[in-house]
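[Backbone geometry]
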Amino acid sequence: MREIVLKPGRERPVRAGHPWVFSGAIASGLDGADAGDPVQVRAHDDRVLGVGYANPKTTIAVRLVSHRDEPFDDALVARRLDEALALRRTCLPAATAYRLVNGEGDRLPGVVVDRYGDVLVLQLLTAGAARLAPALVELLHERLGPRTIYERSEGAVRREEGIADATGVRAGEEPPVPFEIDEGGAVFLVDVVRGQKTGFFLDQREARARVRALAAERRVLNLFAYTGAISVAAGLGGASIVESVDSSRPALALAEATWTRNGLDPGRARWVEANVFEHLRVVDGTYDLVVVDPPPFVRRRTDVGAGLRGYKDVNLHALRRVDAGGLLLTCSCSQHVSREAFRETVAAAAADVGRQPRVIAEWGHAADHPVGLAHPEGEYLKAMLLAV
C-alpha cells in the first residue's frame, strides 16, 4: 500500500478513532495517488495509525477502514460486514427492513447497504468504496442470499469524488416496483428504483413509532410526507384525520396506495400535492399533531445560514398550525446543522409567533444507523417532539 505520512502533531484525531484524514494534515505520500488507492497512514514518528483509501481530489484525503496495522483486503471487508450484521441482530432481532451498513459508523466509509427483506440496496458514495463493489456484492450474496442486490450510487458526493453515478442490478433479478416491507405490523410500499435515496427512510423508525403511539383521535398534518410512512403510522394509531403534503405526485400516489394496503379508511386521509412553504401560508385551520420532516436544507457547510433560515421559516408557519395543547414533531437531517443550532432555530421561530413549546423528547438515528463516538460528523438526524 501507498504510505501517507502526517505532519507533526496532526495524528491526535486519528489516534482517538476519527476515520478521516484531511489533506492539510498530510506531509507526504498523497502526490501521485489515484482516487480510491489503498493506503497505510503513519504518524511523523513512523508509527502506523491505520489503513484505508485515499482521494487526492477531495478535502477528506484519506478515509480509514482500520486503526490497526493490518492488510486492507477482502478479509478485512468481510470482517466489517460480519460485525455490522451481528450488531443488527443484537439491536433489531425481529426487523426485516433495516440499514445493514452505515458507512463510517460501521467502519466501511462511503458504503451504505439497506436491507428490505430479500432485496438489498447498495450505495457506494466514494471512489474507495466503489473499488470494494465486487467484494461487497460477493460477500452480501454469501451471507444473506438475497433475491436482488440493486445499486443506487449517485449524487453530489460521487461527483465531488470524481466518479460517475452507477445504478442498476448488481446481482440477482430486477427488483419489483414497488414491493412491500413490514415494520412493527405496518406495511410500507418501497420503490428502490425511482424513490429517494434507497427508496425509504429507515432512519425515521422511532419517529414513526412515536407518531403511531400519539395519534389517537388527533388531527394530523404531515409535511414533506414523501411516500406517507408517517401518515400511515398516524392512521394506524387512530388519528381522526391525516393530511399529507408533498410536492411529488408519484410519492403521494404511493402514499395513498400504502394507506389502502393497510386497510385504513380513505375518508380519514387527505393528499395534497403542493409546495410545503406555499401551502403553509394559505392553509386554514389547526391540527393536534404537526410533523415537519423536510429534506436536508444544508448540503454544504457554506449553506448553513440559508438552511437555518429555511428551517426557521417552515417551523414558524408549522407552529401557527398547531392547536393549543397540540404537538409538533420537527426534524432536520442536515449533517452540517448541529443539534444546538437546530434547537435555537426552532426556539426563535416559536418566539416570533408567540408560542412557548416544551421539549418532550429528542432523538437521533435509529439503532441500525450507528455513529462512531470519535466521529460526530456522522451524526446528521435530529428530531424534537414539542408540546405547544
